[in-house]
Here is the input.
Amino acid sequence: MIWSGMLIYWANDVYSIKVGNTTIFKFFPESFYKALNIPYRLADGMAFHFSFMWLFMINGLLYVLYTGLSGEWRYLIPLKKSWKEAWLVVLHDLRLRKQAPPQLKYNAAQRISYTIIIIMGFGSMISGFAIYKPVQLQWLTMLCGGYESARIIHFILTILFVLFFLVHIIQVIKAGWNNFRAMVAGFEIQSEKINKDENNNS
Amino acid sequence: MKTIIVDETTEKRFRRRSIIAFIIFFTCVGAAWISWKWLYNQPLDNSIRGGIQKPLRKVLDMNMNVYSGLYSTQHLVKEYPKSMAAPKARVNGNVGMDEDLFDTATWKLTVIRAAGDTLLLTLNDLKKLHKIDVVHNFKCIEGWSQITWWSGVRFSEFAEKYKLTKECQMKFASLVTPDEEYYVGIDMPSMMHPQTILCFELNGKPLPMNQGYPLRLIIPVKYGVKNIKRIGTISFHNDRPADYWAEKGYDYYTGL
Here is the structure.
């Protein structure tokens, strides 16, 4: 989706970060486009974007549905204490704090980011439709604060998805093989003591 | 109370389940990769001579059915005060606009009702109809938009006046420039939208040459590409008529 979105954005690449009149970063530099073979592929981009959006939307909805019905959401929703604990996770991961924060299935920072990413997904869907059908679905466009503002929301969310993805990959690499194996297989062997406790509880 | 077994059997089960999981994982990754390659290398659609892979064209056409279901002539495009309109409307695209080959003096709008039944109209004929203003955010498929002020006559009113009711029950209209270089096909419900106009004025003055003098289409429920400049001929069809940008791989419907 991001790749095809880039093919579309290229046709009118107006966004940049400015302080006063100085441009700090222009989305995107010419060399970046060239390296990814992006120029002059608007039609291509739109065709892929508006075909694959269904796949990603259905996938997202199934994930939300499964998480909701299976009860897994309990591990993923931020708790009251998560907001404070998340800072400890960040500090620990940046090696500014030695003591490891409490870690259940997911830690506080994970709870927050995995929940926010779902909200972002909905945001992309809504702002996407607001740009795509601003007349027939104009209530969505209004909800996004108008046509121009919907475009900006859609763009910023995409940048945030990329950042999330980068951090996610770095964390997976840092966490090592057993974590990756568990991500794929969906289970993990824990120490005997924990197993015993769990069994006693059930 | 279950007993906890952490011995060779557990170790074996663990390994087996992990291996199975990884086989499934890599099979899925492989399948996704192969499907992607398959899709990417599909022949290009040539039923409307498009420039995109056939399966993608199918999805776009499916999308058209979804969105034409949403479509309603009651859904009006937001209008703005004239003071907000750009003093200089952006020009994009000059296909079919070669001025050397175009004679403004002899221009007439050709409306083909049926084979051999052709209507020829001058700009003055059109100006006799009720003129309306459309001040809307003109949206280009490239991603820019601009508030612009156009005036002309409603296509639906024009169709009624010139007794095109039967023709307008067909599914599509085809609009072509006098030199036949640029052409669009538009679904009839969008043509009959109350804000779709045969336009001859921009900012209260006659259309400039580069904005399609003497007559262009303004259809706010579509992207700019369908707002054809300098209309030569209008005809009616049940099959999709040729469309310049659809042939280059763009969506045929491009409805907003």
